[in-house]
Amino acid sequence: MLLQYRTPPLPPVRRAIATPAATARVLAAAPPRPKSTPKPSARPAVTRRPIASPARKLATPPPRTPAPTPPRPRRTPAPTAAPSRTYTGIPAAACNYGDVVVQITVKGNRITVAEAPTYPQDRRQSQQINQDAIPQLDQETIQAQSSNIDTVSGATCTSDGYRGSLQSAIDQWKPGG
């Protein structure tokens, strides 16, 4: 609990210029002040801080004890994401135009990426065919989550080679399955 106590401003004090000897005589002649004893009360005591003046120094206030802080809620660790794993199928030569190699990336229990880093591209016709066929086969693999994908019309050899290499990668991921 924080309490604040404000006092009204004091009227200005006029000081007479005195010599040090006269001041000492006045202080010596003054009677001592009686010490007051605190009265017991049910309410907690309020400490009043004196108004600072340039002529006297204030005593340092007693150290404050910090208010107890409520315990921090425990943080439960975030579930760790399943690591991604990549599997590369063996080259599948389904026809005379070249090998097809499929690489799959698996996260958790799903194929998240399927791509063919190697496919026939030595001839202009192979480049044209595979430019359209490979992205279609990649997309079908992610949708089917298996090697049970359709053949792309006009790219029979590439589709067969893709399926063979894809099945090899899946077999590495799920042995016996």
Can you walk through the features of this model?
The chain has 177 residues and is α+β, with helices and mostly antiparallel strands. It has a domain at 84-173: Sufe protein. Chain: A (Alpha-Beta Complex), CATH 3.90.1010. Helix content is 28%, strand content 12%. It has helices at residues 20-29, 124-144, 156-173, and strands at residues 84-88, 101-107, 110-118. The longest helix has 21 residues, at 124-144. The model has no long low-confidence stretch (mean pLDDT 78).
Task: Summarize this entry quickly.
This protein is of the alpha+beta class.
Task: Walk me through the topology.
Elements: H1 20-29, E1 84-88, E2 101-107, E3 110-118, H2 124-144, H3 156-173
Antiparallel strand pairs: 1-2, 2-3
Whole-number mean pLDDT: 78
User: Can you write the helix and strand succession as a string?
Assistant: HEEEHH
Helical coverage, percent range: 25-40%
The CATH level-2 architecture of one domain is identified as Alpha-Beta Complex
Which descriptor suits the 3D outline?
Answer: rod-shaped
Q: How many DSSP-defined strands?
A: 3
Termini separation comes to 68 Å
Instruction: Specify the structural class.
Output: alpha+beta
CA-atom Rg in angstroms: 45 Å
Q: What is the number of helices? A: 3
The description of the largest β-sheet is: 3 strands, antiparallel
Trace the largest sheet across and list its strands.
1-2-3
- Can you tell me the residue ranges where pLDDT is under 50 for at least 5 consecutive residues? none
* CATH topology term of one domain: Sufe protein. Chain: A
CATH top level of one domain is Alpha Beta
Strand content: 5-15%
